[in-house]
UniProtKB/TrEMBL annotation:
Species name: Pseudorhizobium tarimense
Protein name listed in UniProt: Chromosome partitioning protein
PANTHER family membership: COBQ_COBB_MIND_PARA NUCLEOTIDE BINDING DOMAIN-CONTAINING PROTEIN (PTHR13696:SF96), P-LOOP CONTAINING NUCLEOSIDE TRIPHOSPHATE HYDROLASE (PTHR13696)
Superkingdom, taxonomy of origin: Bacteria
Residue ranges constituting the CobQ/CobB/MinD/ParA nucleotide binding domain according to the UniProt record: 4-184
InterPro entries: CobQ/CobB/MinD/ParA_Nub-bd_dom (IPR002586), DNA_Partitioning_ATPase (IPR050678), P-loop_NTPase (IPR027417)
Coiled-coil regions, chain positions: none
A Pfam family matched in the record: CbiA
Length: 238
């Protein structure tokens, strides 16, 4: 039962989009997924409210430090993956969620501000390892990558992070209309109308490759076989 959190101390780095794409792709594969919405903007909760029931997926909102422990413990037998969307901050809830995670995904756009926000999370992970002997696996995922971002630029960013010993996913998340559309109309990439959304196939391919790469990072012994179940959406109070 992996717990995967998405963290960057700066807001707007693409955490929510990355978390939602991973969660919906895993649910589409038959895994039971719970998204824990710790972002005070509650974008995923709002997405859930307009989506209606989606197979294998539920959203938990209004989370506190104390209730996070409870959710993970009480739902451990009901969920195959926990996906935690964190605030663009470095507060007690972010620190607690990271400490409870099996893997921390750090979304980064090609900007200095995003890099600084990512560095704060990397410093927090290093502190946990040094002071609490918590060696938490983590990776950077490049987000909102457009055709204007050259391959050379991506290689440079990866090189800088690799110099710090940071794993960078080979699959960047592109800047795609389909990803934005999810937050406008709800549902998943697999329920969108290809006649109304441009390059939907490319978006599905991108999200699928991202999910596959994340799955390869998970220890096989903590991944359960996928099962099918329909979860109702709605706000689950802390």
């Amino acid at each position: 039962m992996p717990v995967i959190s998405f963290a960057n101390a700066k807001g707007g780095a693409g955490k929510t989009t990355a978390a939602l794409l991973l969660a919906t792709e895993l649910a589409h594969q038959g895994y039971r997924v719970a998204i824990i919405d710790c972002d005070p903007q509650h974008w995923i909760t709002q997405w859930a409210e307009i989506s209606g029931p989606v197979r294998n997926l539920q959203v938990i909102s209004e989370v506190s430090v104390a209730s996070l422990h409870c959710h993970l413990r009480e739902m451990a037998t009901q969920v195959d993956f926990f996906i935690i969307d964190l605030a663009g901050a470095k507060d007690a809830l972010v620190t607690t969620a990271i400490g409870l995670s099996d893997h921390v995904m750090i979304p980064v756009q090609g900007s200095a501000m995003d890099a600084k926000g990512a560095a704060q999370i990397l410093d927090l992970l290093a502190l946990m390892k040094d002071k609490a002997n918590l060696d938490i696996p983590h990776s950077v995922v490049l987000t909102r990558v457009t055709s204007m971002v050259t391959t050379k630029a991506l290689i440079t960013i990866k090189g800088l992070l690799a110099a710090r010993g940071v794993n960078v996913l080979n699959t960047p998340i592109g800047e795609r209309n389909a990803f934005k559309e999810l937050f406008e109309v709800g549902g998943t990439l697999h329920s969108l109308d290809a006649a109304k959304v441009s390059n939907l196939d490319k978006a599905k391919e991108n999200a699928g490759a991202f999910a596959q790469e994340v799955m390869r990072l998970m220890p096989t012994h903590i991944i359960r076989s996928p099962r099918l179940r329909v979860f109702p959406f709605g706000r689950n109070a802390a």
